[in-house]
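Report of the visiting student (M.T.), summer placement. My assignment was to run the structure pipeline on a short list of targets and document each run. The first record concerns Elongator complex protein 1.
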Amino acid sequence: MRNLKLHYCNEQQTKVSHPRQMLQEPEIGLETSYIATESNVYAVTATGDAPLKVIADLPDIVAAEFLQLNNVICVATRAGEVLLIDPETLATSEGTYCDVGIERMAWSPNQEVVAFITSSHNVVVMNSTFDVIAEQPLEAELPVDQQFVNVGWGKKETQFHGSAGKQAAKQSTDQPTQDTQDLLNKEVNIAWRGDGAYFVVSYVSGGRTFKVYDCEGKLQHTAEKSSNLREIIAWRPSGNWIALPQWFPNKSTISLFEKNGLRHREIVLPFDLQEEQILQLKWSEDSDILAIRTARKQEQQQRVYLYTIGNYHWYLKQVLVYADTDPVAVLHWDTRMGAEQTLHVLLESGKQLVYSWAFDVEPSARQGIVGVIDGKRLLLTDFARAVVPPPMSQCVLQLENYINAIAWDDQQLCVYTCDQRFHFYELKDPLLQQPEPRGSIDLQSTDGQLLQLSNFTYFASNGQLLATTGVQGNTRLLWLQKSDDCYTVLTSVSINGLVKALSRATHNIRSIYAHTLDSGKTYDVSLTAENTFAVAHAKQFESSLQSGLVTLRSQQLLQLGGNGPQRIAEDVTSFLFFGTYLAYTQMNSLHFVDTENRQHLATRSIERGAKLVTAIDEEARVVLQLPRGNLEAIYPRLLVLDQVKVLLNDRRGRYLAAMKLLRKHRINLNIICDTNVEKFVARVDVFLREIQESQWLCLFISELQDADTTAMYPQRSNESPQRLPPGFKFEQKVAYICGLLSKRMSETPSAKERARFRLPLVTVCVRVGDVNAALKLIRQDLEHPGQEDQYLKYLMYLVDINELYNVALGSYDLGMALFVAQKSQKDPKEFLQYLNELKALPEDYRKFRIDDHLKRYSSAVQHLARCGEEHHEEAMEFTRKHGLYTVALSSYKVHPEFHRRLCVAYADQLRANAKLENASLMYERGGELQQALLSARHTLDWQRVLVLAKALGEQPLEQVALSLVGPLQQQGRHLEASELVKQHVRDTEKHMEVLLEGHLYGKAIYEAGLQGGDILAEKIAPALVAHAGQMHNSLKSDLQLFLEYKQRLLDIRQRRANGADTEGGDGDVDIDEVDLLSDTSSMQSSRYSGTSRGTGKTFRSSKNRRKHERKLLSLKPGNPFEDIALIDALHQHVTKIGQQQQVVRDTCKALLQLGGGEDTLAQALQREFKTLLQTVESALDEIWIPELVGSSSGSLAQHLTGPNVDYMALQKEQRYALISPLKRFKPQLNAVDWQHEILQ
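After the run finished, the structure tokens were exported:
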């Protein structure tokens, strides 16, 4: 679908007449090139203003080559001389010499090997230093075992010969006729393959043929016998075809041979080789373009045909015509990298024409129509209606002459032919009709200046044309206007540099952007009211692009921007601008950019090498052409969703078209409501009215999801969040939308509409989980009996048949259950007998049996409770089996006796599960007071025990209370024990004894003060002093133990730090303890890097795990994890110290209440505890260091990133990971007001 578009044609003067060969230096930007004639080699500049420099003056120059490695020119003469000439110093040295003379010389593309054909028809192959590699006669044949063999696949007379007819079967092609022999050109030609591995030699041996040699001069293949071959030969640089002209009685072709000499395919020429002789055949360096130079003697002109291939079809893209007054002398494709599609044409007068070509798709302004040039045919295809694979097309426009360029303007088409004539057509819609001609007109030529025009821009409103032509490196921009019988130049302007591209501004038809090649500048050219050009550097661009022109540089750099162009991407192969999107392709990906905020929205993979052809907004279609030429139409999600939004946001709400588009492209139908929920809710009636197919409504309802599906697709950054209707949440979207649709569909008064909405309503019921309602819906108000089966069949697609049968059975409607079972695949033996049994049962018991069958046990108990007393035993057994005591107790409240039995049974179960408190309550409800008392006694609920004991009356309350004192004291509930003795035993001594045993000295002093006597001095004071002394000693021991643990921990850390400095790691870890480390973070010391990492034990049992945990937390000196054990012990110790604050305060207060005799002891106790707290608080930060606190998965991960892994930090963290997370942080000492001011 690509045309060969002329970017510019630059006319230069070389001042070298009768050139025969052109040489170029390898780098772009060097202005010097070399032109060889028959007797001289000249150095010329691109500007042509410098005087000619003669590099060599030799007679009969056969060939010349610029050798890049040595920066010299190699010249071969017919006399046999091969000279190396330095173009700078003109120093000459002899390369080699052939005494018999040289007929042809050709260097390999890599310039490592050179091939000569001597005048005696010997093939000589030399290396770059002119050492002979091989030499053999051109007539030498291949060995017999390598020659072609006729395997006898039928006679020629029996084979099909196509358009040649039956006479071709009788003609012999072994040898040319005598007339052809006389016309044969005897010259020999050489052509190299692009990689320099092979070369081919065309020569005459009875008839024209060729041979293929490798770079070492060995004969590899000989061509099959073919008649009427011409002497011109060219090997495609990519290596797959060898091109030679060949004449047939009914056609003339460029025959394409494979390396093995077999004819592969052909290019049918539009002329006769006997009337129009081929003078030169040249492939472009990228193998994309084949240039054919011919001479037509009758018309006294020369032509250059440019062919390209696509989808196995050869397109004639350009025909350049030159008069015989100044014929073409040399055709040369640029050999420099990056300029492979630049053609140099040297005329006999010394004029040089430089054509720069590029492949470009030329769609019409109305998106979809693309024109492809193929000789005299213009192939038109409207991709908005059909994707026609090339070389076919939707419409063919046939002209009388060869087409070189086309230009569009709305529905108008301008065609420029090789005879410098413009043809105008009006396109029809649809394109199935032939375009209507609107006349043709010639181009007025003055002084040969308009030899080649490029960059056509057509303005259909006034018939004017804009074009460019280049002279001496500058460009003239021409505004052409129609006169009576030709186009004339209305005005022109000169622009420095070669204009490579023109682009029409969409905001002003009289404004043009021109981009130059050399400087890379973009000019804003506008036509004033006086029909003159105004040229300025483009600084402001169209507002629709937000100050942006889209440019694709020759280095495949895509830019978008005005004052400061923004680089969009590199390695871009094609781009296309449509709507607000810029689409561009890279090697194997397609990208979309929002031009408003320049945000990359989407990327998708495409076939390698695919390029953009066109895009159709209405269809959301993008057409790509693949490297081999075939087309592929894709529908990117981004464009489809944009089109869906346009349809949904239409004021009429085109929901039907939107749903068709979504179904066609298999996009989630939730987009219909998620795009604009508020608008969808407001227009739900329009939605139901447009979607007439009930199946489509069912499909929409079944695809609803509790999520915002628009988040799955690209979002523009400038899009504002949508407004949601009141009460709507995406997490409850299914219920909301289904409720809305159900309400609207149920309210319709029309019977026809109710029938249309029957299936959607069934779908709504299934989506909200009410299958029972769906079953009822399919059986009510049916117009035809057969509809019930149809609706049920649909319901069976939505719900599993077994579940549907259970729902029908669970509705207690046996008729419905039978109806569903009959339509399923169930065996009648499975359900008929069961349904008949149910039918014979009473209603409540039938419901119980159904609920039991469906495992709805709670409902079954409720129905069984209505069945009467005869089913109490069954109810008891059923309740015990399924543990439904709470449901049964609620259901059997009206049956007191059975209710008590249920309470006792429930209490038995609770007691079996060690829930004694609840069991005691249930026993009490069931009348089992003795069991309730026992259960309460086990929980030491002494208040309930006393209440229940009094109710039983079997034992005095004092005795019961006294029996509870000992167990309460064992559990540390001394205060409750004292209250129990005081209230119910009334034994003063026992009461005081309980208080002293619980160290409740404040309470004891209070009781002694109320009672009076010597109890305080005789019993309380001695016990309190003894307890205070014991506590003082305990605090000293706690301080000593804390300091000991702390010092041991600091010593261990110091040893580890010293060991890491000397040994580079932790050398104390025992290999047997590695299994205690985390599997995800365990690291071994380098000391054990060569041994196995584990012991092979899994330690999966809890017993072994606890054993290893005890081993881990062992405080025994020498334990490999002694530091971890010490941290664990210190945390517990500090926590215990913090909990003693209130105990110390109460003890000191009790000592102060003794009357002052024990103030010294109280003061010493308070001072000792204060010292302990201060020591602990000051050492917390020293024990719980930041490394210990920061040991977590996040900090562990940071040591594993980067080029250098911190193995020491990693090893520390994996050790600290063994500590409980709570104990990695220092304990919090919640300070209370525990000190007495009078003791300080």
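The first strand starts at residue 3 and ends at 13. Residues 701 and 764 are 7 Å apart (CA to CA). I thank the supervising group for their guidance throughout the placement.
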